[in-house]
Fold:
Amino acid sequence: MIDLKTLEVWFVTGSQDLYGEETLRQVAEHSQQIAKAFDASAQIPVRVVFKPTVKSTEEIYKTLQEANTTKNCIGIVAWMHTFSPAKMWINGLKILQKPMLHLHTQFNSDIPWQTIDMDFMNLNQSAHGDREFGFIMSRMRLNRKVVVGHWQSAEVLEQIGAWTRVAAGWNDWQGARFVRFGDNMRYVAVTDGDKVEAELKFGYSVNTHGVGDLVKVINAISDAEIDKLTKEYEDIYAVVPSLKKGGDQYQSLREAAKIELGILAFLQDGNYKGYTDTFEDLHGMAQLPGIASQRLMGKGYGFGGEGDWKTAALVRAMKVMGSGLKGGNSFMEDYTYHFNPANPMVLGSHMLEICESIAMGKANCEIHPLGIGGKADPVRLVFNVAGGPALNASIVDMGNRFRLLVNEVEAVAPQHELPKLPVARVLWKPLPDMKTGCAAWILAGGAHHTCYSQNLSSEQLVDFAEMANIECVLIDKDTKIHQFKNELRWSDASYR
Structure:
């Protein structure tokens, strides 16, 4: 569903006519060589396309205008091989609508001590040419990513690759559609918000369909389709005996499959990239979608429980960013705490809907009562999640702005059997510690719903916020509450 190789970033090199034909020929050759190496790099998941050297206001404007209107172009990597007078860039940068990465590099790695002359110096002027370019972007108050280092270094390749993933996530939001089946959970504040402002700011739309519209599609699913999917469940998961063919709850498995197929058909027909539902509005449905939401997230769709459209959109974006990487991204909720002083932890889970992409090993397919919603017992996948570095991210509507909140965490391998807990679950320790991490999250107004990621970094989420031009608040190993409160006050003053 998510193929990053269909996307491209453009490698644009700046110079000027002042240097003459021979120097500009070498600039073009060097730029082509760099772009070709980037395009072939395993660390960069999208295509990297060379663009001819831009040397004038008109050439810059034309190239950046073409980037805006080229559907598969998700961003620009810009480099000043020589000196490129930055007033030439103003008109182009004014209209640029795609993210920008400024690569501060030079073609050669080392200074050729014995042969260096003024011809070499005139050709290799990135050290000050990039400063000129940096000034105009700062003067214009433009957000961009700056990566410094030699273009062949593994660290630079990894930074560029990570940024292109973020640009892919941002690009995926532009014109995206998310559907809400019913409204958000009644009286809940944080899952609500301004959908008009979100479309203006983020580029995606959120609209509601009555559950009856979905039920109509669910009821049109054929028995043959259901047979095929229930067989797939038995092939992939450890299905409990009662749900297998001949078991006394086999019909519940078929209902779950029917719901999954119906939601998938609805999403495909409407070109939606994610959805929300709520247990308060299930009219005509046999059970709350459990395994359906888990598996659809596994296919790359965004999901938010209780009508939480902001989290559904964030889950989708992070799915795109993490596409092809080891580990997964999932809708999540801080559910309950282990406040043992020697080993404090959070148990993250939800009623049902944790994505199978973060499962440790083979998931169980089980059925249990759900003491909320008033429907039949729902089928769900039950599994543990491995330990390791991870993060939780949440977007909240602060009234005058959106805030992206990120908390780095350390997931903990399962320490005990949980024989009576009938849901997927993960344990983690918030950074810098339980008390500080939880207090900072609450002070920042972070939601109880998040996207839990095993394969993205906080730096990538910060880059994402900068592409969206929204506030980003980071809780990590260096967070101290006094300083954190001041940061929140400064942000409030900045956005006032």
Remarks:
- The mean pLDDT is 97.
- Residues 170 and 451 are 16 Å apart (CA to CA).
- The first helix runs from residue 21 to 40.
